[in-house]
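Milestone M4 deliverable, item 7.
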Amino acid sequence: MTETPTPITDYISTKKASERVGISRSYLQYLLSVGRVQGHKLGHDWLVFVPSLDAYIANRPKRGLKPGTKLGPRRKPAPGDSDAQTL
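Output delivered:
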């Protein structure tokens, strides 16, 4: 049984994809090379599969502290150090 090919309209260049989602082209190329986003490499250039990019953006890991974690002082003052500041 033969598969129906994906229409070329479902692919965009890395430049357009990076502008669309707000990430750098080099990071997008990294995501493509490790398989987190689907695409095809043509020579030195990548074509990004748009539904795969949209799925990655919708489910990507969030930056920053995880919910429920507390940020404590970065350093503890030495004993007897009354004017030491904690950050």
